């Protein structure tokens, strides 16, 4: 057992160890756990285990950094946001589940086995379901139930893919399968197609996305941030690993386009800001799905988009949490004048909405730009035009609503907590930093 | 078709018939117990294949199915049935309508999917040369239909377990995945049922809500 292997194991175990502090400062233990796993994940870039029990390629590493850092931000934010509001499950249970939820996501990313990866993805549903009813209400119970039943039923379908992969290759080892040749073309092709709907349920692929807006709008804001920022990308990662066996871009790209179109149309008539951001996540995830499917520059674009989006969307939900606590309303039309009354939250929600809609110079813009370039290089002109039209629609819908909330007249609210608004502001600036760093790097390379 | 193959076919057909029984049932406890019967029948298939192929894995799989699906899941579900469990039923369900719709849905979906997609997969071992995969597919889609057609939390959980049963049967017939993974899948499902039983207490039926519109 070498050091690289131990680090990988430790990254999964630390959030679990933090749960051992259930009776004694579990909130602080979760923050410490978040800081440790983020540092370890960053360090792992230099020291990664050779494929065996774990398989941590460059793509896995990016996802791992995303999960650990958004977990850290959410853990800090949760200590203030949840205090006094955990009516459904207790505050300690909340942190316990948050830690197990993170550990199961990290397990899904690192494990070098399709079957166990599926188990990890299913475990994320189990561990996160009760987080939705932290602030118990009839609506949150209904949202939790829809989340459980729709996602489980969908992800179960993905297990067909696992059985077919085993049937075709006699093994479930991810690394050896994606680096070896396809032996049974039909089984591999069907496994890849089923994964689109199976894991697609969790990614937010139309028409199996229906749990997504409900769960995001009813979950506590830090949990919504985890869902949007990292849970959906982890499911996308699982889908991509199956996709790599026998790439089938035509199917994946068209499903992605239809999903972007649907999300953009739904975005047009949203009345509640958290639901609006949920549909924006659906749009971004499917854009990343297209990038991963077409390969080449598309993969770099998808990773850049996902990385920037994870912080941008986390910031959007943290800001939403601040607004909800200050105003008590989830409706867009009831919130106005944030720029004057809550400047920090007003800034963070504006920056985050610009980030998640791909405005330059945020990292998301460069990610989307690279994906569009890759689409152009493949001469997919009709697909490009459709995507551009719906991206514009989504951009206008989100930014118009957020601008009304930020710059409208009235207001008179006050920031409820300085830590919460600071975390939201920090998260909203990260996509900007990613964009600038990318610009400098590209400039240096060129 | 050999005698053994015929026997397995009959049990698999019985599994599908039990699924139809669940679809036509409105009493919660009866549905939970029918799911137990279904799981035991799947375990029986696993034991028979285990004996013929002299494979310990199939035996362990059968035992796991009986313990986790046949006993623990039904125990957790029955415990959560409020009031006098034997008379608790799902109200306002047009059973005859859904039963017929289920029949049409299964016949169309399963046969199209089986003949277009799965018929070219070769089942090996004792069931070689048969089209036995049609049964797990029918079970899987019946589970999905049960979830979609009913509003009671209990019924939807049973639909989910039934869907999982279809998957287990599919793996048994085609090629069982390694036992460690199968066991993890079973534990996942069990944990999910335990978690959902917490929601069950609070919310037993599911209707449209204004807050979750759009």
Please provide a written account of the structure.
The complex is a heterodimer of chains A (446) and B (214). Chain A is mostly helical and 446 residues long. Chain A has 2 domains: 245 residues; 199 residues, no CATH class. Helices cover 77% and strands 0% of the residues of chain A. In chain A, helix 6 runs antiparallel to helix 8, helix 13 packs antiparallel against helix 14 and helix 14 packs antiparallel against helix 17. Chain A is globular and about 65 Å long. In chain A, 65% of the residues are buried. In chain B, helix 1 runs parallel beside helix 5 and helix 6 runs antiparallel to helix 7. By secondary structure, chain B is mainly α. The mean pLDDT of chain B is 85. Chain B contains 7 helices and no strands. Chain B is globular and about 55 Å long. Chain B has one domain. The chains are: A mainly alpha (446), B mainly alpha (214). The interface between A and B is large, with 47 and 37 residues.
Write out key terms for the chains shown.
heterodimer, A: 446 residues, mainly alpha, B: mainly alpha, globular
Uncertain stretches of chain A: none
> Roughly what percent helix of chain B?
over 70%
Look at the helices and sheets of chain A and give the structural class: mainly alpha
**The biggest beta sheet of chain B, please?**
none
- The helix-strand sequence of chain A is HHHHHHHHHHHHHHHHHHH
| Total E-strand runs of chain B | 0
Per DSSP E runs of 2 or more residues, the count of β-strands of chain A stands at 0
């Amino acid at each position: 057992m070498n050091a690289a292997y131990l680090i990988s194991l430790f990254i999964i175990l630390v959030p679990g160890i933090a749960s051992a502090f259930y009776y004694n400062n579990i909130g602080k233990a979760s923050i410490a756990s978040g800081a440790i796993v983020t540092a370890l994940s960053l360090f792992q870039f230099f020291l990664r285990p050779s494929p065996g029990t774990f398989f941590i390629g460059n793509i896995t590493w990016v996802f791992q950094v995303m999960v650990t850092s958004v977990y850290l931000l959410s853990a800090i934010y949760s200590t203030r946001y949840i205090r006094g509001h955990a009516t459904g499950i207790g505050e300690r249970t909340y942190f316990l589940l948050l830690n197990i939820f993170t550990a199961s996501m990290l397990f899904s990313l690192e494990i070098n086995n399709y079957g166990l990866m599926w188990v990890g993805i299913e475990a994320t549903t189990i561990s996160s379901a009760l987080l939705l009813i932290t602030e118990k209400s009839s609506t949150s119970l209904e949202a939790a139930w829809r989340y459980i039943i729709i996602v489980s039923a969908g992800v179960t379908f993905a297990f067909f893919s696992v059985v077919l992969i085993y049937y075709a290759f006699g093994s479930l080892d991810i690394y050896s399968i994606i680096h070896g040749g396809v032996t049974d073309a039909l089984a591999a092709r069907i496994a890849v197609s089923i994964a689109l709907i199976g894991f697609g349920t969790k990614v937010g692929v139309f028409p199996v996305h229906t749990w997504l807006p409900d769960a995001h709008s009813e979950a506590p804001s830090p949990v919504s941030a985890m869902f949007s920022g990292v849970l959906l990308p982890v499911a996308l990662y699982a889908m991509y690993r199956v996709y790599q066996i026998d790439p089938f871009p035509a199917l994946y790209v068209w499903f992605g386009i239809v999903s972007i179109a649907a999300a953009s149309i739904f975005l047009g008539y949203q009345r509640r800001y958290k639901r609006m951001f949920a549909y924006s996540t659906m749009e971004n995830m499917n854009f990343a799905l297209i990038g991963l499917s077409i390969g080449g520059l598309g993969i770099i674009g998808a990773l850049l988009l996902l990385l920037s989006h994870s912080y941008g969307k986390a910031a959007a939900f943290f800001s939403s949490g601040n607004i909800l606590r200050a105003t008590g309303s989830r409706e867009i039309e009831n919130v106005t004048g944030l720029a004057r009354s809550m400047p920090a939250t007003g800034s963070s929600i504006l920056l985050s909405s610009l980030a998640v809609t791909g405005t330059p110079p945020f990292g998301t813009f460069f990610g989307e730009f690279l994906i569009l370039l890759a689409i152009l290089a493949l001469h997919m002109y009709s697909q490009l035009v459709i995507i551009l039209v719906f991206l514009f629609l989504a951009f206008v819908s989100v930014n118009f609503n957020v601008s009304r909330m930020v710059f409208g007249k009235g207001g008179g609210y006050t920031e409820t907590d300085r830590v919460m608004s600071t975390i939201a502001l920090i998260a909203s600036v990260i996509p900007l930093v990613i964009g600038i760093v990318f610009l400098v790097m590209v400039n240096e390379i060129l | 078709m050999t005698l053994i193959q015929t026997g397995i076919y009959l049990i698999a057909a019985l599994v599908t018939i039990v699924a139809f029984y669940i679809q036509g049932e409105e009493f919660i406890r009866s549905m939970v117990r029918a799911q137990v019967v279904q799981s035991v029948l799947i375990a029986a298939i696993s034991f028979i294949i285990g004996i013929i192929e002299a494979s310990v894995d199939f035996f362990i799989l059968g035992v796991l199915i009986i313990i986790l699906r046949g006993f623990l899941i039904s125990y957790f579900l029955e415990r959560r049935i409020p009031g006098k469990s034997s008379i608790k039923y799902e109200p306002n369900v047009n059973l005859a309508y859904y039963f017929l719709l289920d029949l049409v849905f299964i016949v169309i979906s399963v046969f199209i999917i089986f003949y277009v997609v799965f018929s070219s997969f070769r089942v090996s071992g004792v069931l070689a040369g048969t089209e036995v995969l049609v049964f797990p597919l029918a079970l899987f889609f019946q589970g999905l239909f049960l979830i979609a057609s009913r509003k009671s939390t209990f019924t939807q959980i049973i639909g989910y377990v039934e869907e999982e049963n279809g998957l287990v049967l599919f793996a048994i017939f085609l090629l069982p995945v390694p036992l460690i993974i199968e066991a993890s899948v079973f534990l996942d499902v069990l944990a999910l049922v335990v978690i959902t039983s917490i929601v069950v207490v609070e919310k037993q039926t599911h209707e449209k809500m204004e807050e979750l519109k759009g």
